User: Fold these one by one.
Assistant:
Number 1:
Amino acid sequence: MTLLHQLKKALTLPARLALTTTTVLACTGAAMAAEDVRIAGYTWPGYGFFHIAIAKDLAPELNIDYQTIEDPYESFNLVAADQMDVVASTAEFTPVGVERGLPIKLVAFGNLSYGTDKIVAGPGIASAADLAGKEVAVLEGGLSQIFMAMWLEQNGADFDSVVYRNIIADDALAAMIGGGVAASQFWEPYGSNTLKALEGSSVLAQSREPYWLKQGVVADGYYMGDRFINERRDVALLTMKALYDSIEWWSQNPEEGNQIIADGMQMSVADVELVLGKDGSRTDGGLYVYNFMEAAQFCGSAPGNPPFDQTNGQINDHWALVSDWWVKFDLIEKVQPPETGIECSLHKELYEAGYRG
């Protein structure tokens, strides 16, 4: 009997619906031997929830191995070589991966930038027009480039009216202070550090503004390999469930959860709190973490709308938006159908089985 059938059976009786996650898991997965799951992500608190699953034994059916790999391209290539199962990364890569023939799917939106991303300008720059012909620092081929390009067009400037330079993080901070670039897209803590270090610098845009929240542009996602989804589907479902069980546990135990994530990511608790917040509300930090229902709604796999005036099934619109931009930036040749890179059936199966996170 598959996990899906077991889960459906366990959740058909009203009394079972009141069971704790631990008891449901015991009913549905105790007979399964622990399955190895290999997960990769770079050093970022938003990817740290699997450390909670490990530390609190929230998925006893799984032997989760989380590897910190700073280059997401390396992680995706490991998936292609069947040496990795899951990758946590920014949510714009899928169209590029599809065109390159990588056997991966975006299976979930993980979190939405809620102020952690900023476009910071140097002294004397107050508008998009002021940047014409000047150099700006972004991660070329990443969300920061799309963020910058969309902001330029939103404010009446052509997206290619600036010179994009592939400089990020500390190097971008140094370039701003040295006057090498006129503006940069930063994530925390680099944006705040730049504002503190560079007199006269200012914020031109930040991702907590309603426009960016509704668009869902600056976000992280979870990817799975095609083999993992199709050949080890029960394990893929358990892995997704472990993620959302961990998010729910963190929301109820934010202080301990942030410490676990800090230890797992080898970061300070203060930096984790800057990104995730302190109270588990998901709105007092720089990221808004999607729970199961919100992610399923964004995928179009559960009824209702996700937060911030987003729409049910918006993941397809997100695919079209980022694909259009990658065509403009000559990163891909054409826009492919969303089903070539998006897999929402895992959310759908869990929802139909009665899981709600």
Number 2:
Amino acid sequence: MKQILTSRVYEAAIETSLDEAEALSQQLGNRILLKREDQQPVFSFKLRGAYNRISQLSLAERRKGVITASAGNHAQGVVFAANQLGIRAVVVMPVTTPLIKIKAVKRYGGEVTLHGNNFSEAAEKAARLTRESGMVFIHPFDDELVIAGQGTIGDELLRQNPGPLDAVFIPVGGGGLIAGVAAYIKELRPEVRIIGVEPRDSDAMARSLEAGKRLLLPEVGVFADGVAVKQVGRLTFTLCRRYVDDIIRVSTDELCSGIKAIYQATRSIVEPAGALGMTGLLKYIRESGCSDQTLIAINSGANMNFERLRYVAERTLIGEQQEALFAVTIPETRGSLKRFCHDLVGDRNITEFNYRLSSREQAYIFVGISISHAAERAEFGRRLNAAGYHNLDLTDNDLAKNHIRYMVGGRSTEVGGERLFRFWFPETPGALVRFLDGVGGERNISLFHYRMQGGDFGRVLIGLEGGGRGEGELEGRLDRLGYRYQEETANPAYRLFL
């Protein structure tokens, strides 16, 4: 508490506004407020903790400078703070870091060292440089002064909203933000529920709290890259065990709908991690059915690549439970498509329709339909079954949503022994060449699909024909390559359409 109240963050950061989402509040029957950390000079709350830590260095430490490893908002917070204080700052970033983020760090006066293909390798390099140079390492979350700096948001919330407050929804990565805010609010207003929000594929804090100890995730998702942390901090875990009431996990589709909700309320476009608080708040209302409560979501940042907006828009309807995707087998007879649309789709809008002749007896269609709630999706599947149409609900199938919907009709009778893999390629020049060199020339690439989505990693679908040495040897090559991958050969959407 004392460290939060004596924090020096306001020498660089600003007190951000607490805005009511009036239309959303009326629609959902609760008072919904948004804490606007996107208003900070670096468009993220990270400046608070970084400045508080760096500003309290000794004169000897300031002369040596500071160093950190980061590819995101923490890097910008560190270099901005160091620049304000006239201190040298070095940031180690993976070589896969997009140029836009490298330029942002340099714009704020930081020195960039590129090393490794992921954050872990960059962090190891930063640790070596710290030992060799004597520079001070600024941890992104597991540091008392960093946590205290983030905790000033809690002080602002209670001053800006002195009346009723039921719950605060906070994005969780390594845990610095939620630890600081929770510690402050719970000391003064213990009745306020502190609810963290994590992506389902980056839920290190939720899993650790459930296990009663810090866990190391084998891999994390790439969409909400601002919270893609494999292991939470020791300090943050201890504080969260004491002060956090619950953690809500959300899907990528739900997160896209959260981005849209913030845009409609404020006309600001936040990054995926920045929308976690709002996404969790909306899910909480939907699942609990609460009303007449005062709920606050923290928008933690708005460093969004413009190119990602297309992907966000495509996934928003599913996240809002306004769209369902189905694979449907229809007879290849005259009038069958008309009967399908007239008798089953009815007055629903068709959001997407993909078809290609499969045989003279039957055809597979990939169709998207508008729905008003989740129960309607299940009801549509039951109606298809009752009418004798074999169908598969693909609404939660990532392979279908990321690739198949753009590739319907790609079957080939010439391919033999094909295995299908999804890869996450770093969005850097030479990524494909590295893949080809790593896999070797013994297997033919029989299928390839990539579509730019504006993130740090591109989602790539690749088919490899059998051949060469044993199948275990292929997995060995892929593991050594270092790209995250997942086999999809058994995925029913692949069997139907590709």
Number 3:
Amino acid sequence: MHEVVQDYSAAQVATGFSWTECPRWHDGALYFSDMYAARVIRVAPDGSWSVFADFSDRVGLDGARVVTVGIGFLPDGRLIANSMFERVVLVWDGERAEVYADLRPFAPGPVNDMVVDAEGRAYVTQLGYDLWKKEEPVQTAILLVETGGSVRELEEAGLLTAANGITISADGGTVVTAEAPEKRLIAFDRASDGTLTAPRVFAELDLLPDGVCFDAEGAVWVAQPGGGAAIRVVEGGEITARVTIDAERGGRTTACGLGGEDRRTLYVCCGFEVWDFDASVRGGKGSIWAADVPVGAGEARP
């Protein structure tokens, strides 16, 4: 790994959540998944926050607990969210949730993160096996949810172990995901129909990667739960910048996303308790942090 050339400190923006994940800038505000509370939070530019979508009253399919993880917005403004253990994508109409896409035929275990492209197609990553039950790893494919809710397995992209965060480059031609247990980022070429091909290593990392986001220059910001930071990595593995979090107040860094008026603010999700769902909700120590960085997201997604 190469020397970090620029270091930025982050400030806490909001707190009071469970395990926070998947920050998305949309329509002038930050949205993220308050996972174990089964809700999506909206944070205004002044730091005030409110519950945007509440899934906590939902009865999970097949008796599964409802845990919201990857989120995104369709071109018509509707929110979609992965229900991790139900293995479905839910759509929120402002009052209630319905199943938008059923991933169960393609997902042997919990689903994970999501990124939505400009056309409204959603790429969904999978854990593939239940980490909380200490199951053995199972490799799975990235799933593509088409604009009408149909699902296809992206076989050309190959199989991955516990794929996590996922992001689309500013020109739309590249997708990168974090293959968490392998401590690396994997890149794919992206076709106009959404197909992913030519899997390759974008960067080898020293610590497990979680959530990711591209910036306009083609670098990827990566949240590393074991490092108390998010790092900016260029293809090949060079680290060019780091946003650090006060570990005593923030805990572990889980995900990151670029937002703000010019999308030059890196928002970082943080949490303390990922294994005990109820303790995570009761503790309410999850938080959001922010740091201004020189390169914005441009047209990169999320």
